Automatic annotation (TrEMBL):
GO biological process: rhamnogalacturonan II biosynthetic process
Record family assignment: Belongs to the glycosyltransferase 77 family.
Gene expressing this chain: BnaA09g00420D
Species of origin: Brassica napus (Rape)
Entry coiled-coil feature ranges: none
GO molecular function: UDP-xylosyltransferase activity
Cell compartment(s), UniProt: Golgi apparatus membrane
Descriptive protein name: Glycosyltransferase
GO (cellular component) term, any one: Golgi apparatus
Residues of the Nucleotide-diphospho-sugar transferase domain: 113-328
Topology of the protein relative to the lipid bilayer: Single-pass type II membrane protein
Top EC class, one word: transferase
Amino acid sequence: MAQRLFSSSHLSHSSASNRRHIYLMSRNGLLLLVALLLLLGVSLRWSASPLFICPNKSSSSSYSSLPSNWRDYSLAQAAKFVAKDGTVIVCTVSYPFLPFLSNWLISVSRQKHQDKVLVIAEDYATLYLINEKWPGHAVLIPPALDSQTAHKFGSKGFFKFTSRRPRHLMQLLELGYNVMYNDVDMVWLQDPFQYLEGSHDAYFTDDMTRPLNQSHDLPPPDRNGVTYICSCMIFLRPTNGAKLLMKKWNKELQEYGTKAYEGNDQPAFNWALNKTASQVDLYLLSQAAFPTGGLYFQNATWVEETQGKHVIIHNNYIIGYENKMKRFHDFGLWLVDDHAFESPLGKLE
C-alpha cells in the first residue's frame, strides 16, 4: 500500500516536473524568462548607480579629491576647487547667519555664479553643515569663533569677525585669484561682473549719497579727514596695488584694535584707502547700480529715478538680525521662504 502510494506520488511529481519543463521550453515560457532576466539586469544597474543610492548627492568625480576631514581643508585647496576663470567669490559667515547666506546664494545662483562661491566659515558648525550640503564650498581658517552668537554691529565680537577679512583676501590674492567679497546681507538683482569696467586694482562701493553722475575716483575726505567707502562689496585683482591695500588695511586694523572703541573694520579700511590712494588704481562703482540701504530702502524717489540700474542691494544702515530680515521681507527680497531650493544649500532646517 505504502509502496503504491509512494509510486503514485513519485509519478505525479515527475509528471508535474515534466509539464513545467515543457512549459518553460515553450515560446511563452522563453519570453517570460527573457523578460525576467532583463528586469533583473536593469535593477542591478540602478542599484549600482550613485544616484540610486543617494539621489541628493552629486556623482561628480571632482569630489573624490576633497578631504573627508574638513578641518584639514586648506584655503588653497578650497580656492582651487571653486575658482572659475581665475575668480573666487568670497563671503565670511557664522552659524546664526546661515539663513542670510542662503538668501544671498539664491540671488547669486540666479546670475549663474554660484559655482565660484567660497564660504569662509567662522565656526565648525558652519563648516560642516555647508560641506555636508554643498561639498567643497566652505573652509575654516583657524581660530574658530563661537558658533552660537550673532554678533551685533559695534560689538567686540563683531570686530573680531570682520577684522580677519583683509588677511583672508590677501591670501587669495597671493594665490593669484581675482576676488569678489560680499557681505551676505546683500541680494543680487543683476550680474555685477558686467559692471567691473577696465582693469583697475580694486573696485568699491560708497556709503555716502552721491550725485548720479558721480566720479569713479576716490572721493576727497570730509572735514574730519574721513571717507565713507564700504568694505562690504569689494572686487580685487591679484596686482601689487591690491596686495598693498590689503596689507595696509590689516596693519591699520591691528593698530585700531588696540583702541577703546572696537566697532568695525571700516574706519581702518578707509584710512588704508587714503594712505595708499596714490599707489593703488581704485575704481568707485556707480551708486545707482550698487546702492546703500540708506538709499534703496529709504528713498522711494531715488529708487524710481534709478529703476532698472540696480545690481546689488545692500541691507545696511540698519542694525539687528531681525530688523534686516524684516526689511528684506517688506521689500520682497527675502527669497528663502519661497525659493529655498534655488540655493545650493537647499532648505535649511
